[in-house]
Amino acid sequence: MEQEQPQSPDTPLSVTLFAGLSDIELIRELWNHFPENMFLVRVESEDDFIMEAVNPAQKATLGAACEGRRLHDFLPRDTADAIWARYHECVVSDMPMRYQESATYFDPEGVECFGHWLTLLVPIHHHSHRVTHLFGISQDLTELQLAREALERQNQRLEARVAERTAELRAANDELQSLNARLEELATRDFLTSAYNRRHLESLAESELRRVDRSGAPLCMLMIDLDEFKQVNDALGHAAGDAVLRRVADTLRAELRDSDLLGRYGGDEFVIVLPDTRLEEALATAERLRHAVQASTQTTISLGVAQYQPGDIHLGELTQRADHQLLDAKRDGRNRIGIESM
Hints:
Mean pLDDT: 90
Order of helices and strands: HHEEHEHHEEEHHEHHEEHEHE
Structural class: alpha+beta
Largest sheet: 6 strands, antiparallel
Number of domains: 3
Helix content: 40-55%
Radius of gyration: 49 Å
Number of strands: 11
CATH topology of the largest domain: Alpha-Beta Plaits
CATH architecture of the largest domain: 2-Layer Sandwich
Strand order of the largest sheet: 3-2-1-6-5-4
Strand content: 15-25%
CATH superfamily of the largest domain: Reverse transcriptase/Diguanylate cyclase domain
Distance between the termini: 143 Å
Oligomer: single chain
């Protein structure tokens, strides 16, 4: 029987490998039909690598012309630099490596493409203690990566749309809350003068009475009526009368504190609640209001002043006393102030 001749140490590993595997059908079929890229790199030195053999799948990616050539001879510079660095690291460490890589390359037609791979790189020692070859398998992740990126873009668009819709809903909700607050405010105001309407003024005044009943703090009420207002309406019309009411309300409001409560009680009558105010202080306020209204509107007002007393269980008792003082002021000639005894 003819004895098999041993391979020379200088014989390329790919020749030795495939000669040895020629009778092993399974291995040959694996190399030829494996769907992922398989390649064998010859290590000339730590810094010099030659693509010695590639399987058909790799040839379909890069073309057969890559065999026997250095990386920079058939790959774009940036790609060749990145792969060279991986090969160098594997040779120096003498350990298998698994890593993901993304790279630009030229297909067999010379068209520049971009792909993603998961690569396993294994160092091989052939007739030497040093690493002479690198065996690699690269699983093509390009479609998976593209699908992942498309999904990420879709998610970003959805997130942007959700954020946009959320902002729209928040703005609409803020606008609705603002509108509701405005409607609630309008429901408490007299439409003509913007003073509190009678219902809301009485509600606020009742709350103040409960507060002063607990604390013992002073509180006064001013009942105000425009003098000869009917003559204004009769002579100049209701539009002129409305204008006078607005000017009077604006003047009163400008002279009051933030804590004071101004309301239109009906017709040409206004009520002011003065928290934390003694009777003599309320009289001074009434005088200031009387002069201010006459100066700014050429209209006179009469005022009744009453002070909260511990026996005032209901607002009506305080209101009735202030109204009596107002009637006294009008009987005394108008443009006057009626006040309870101090």
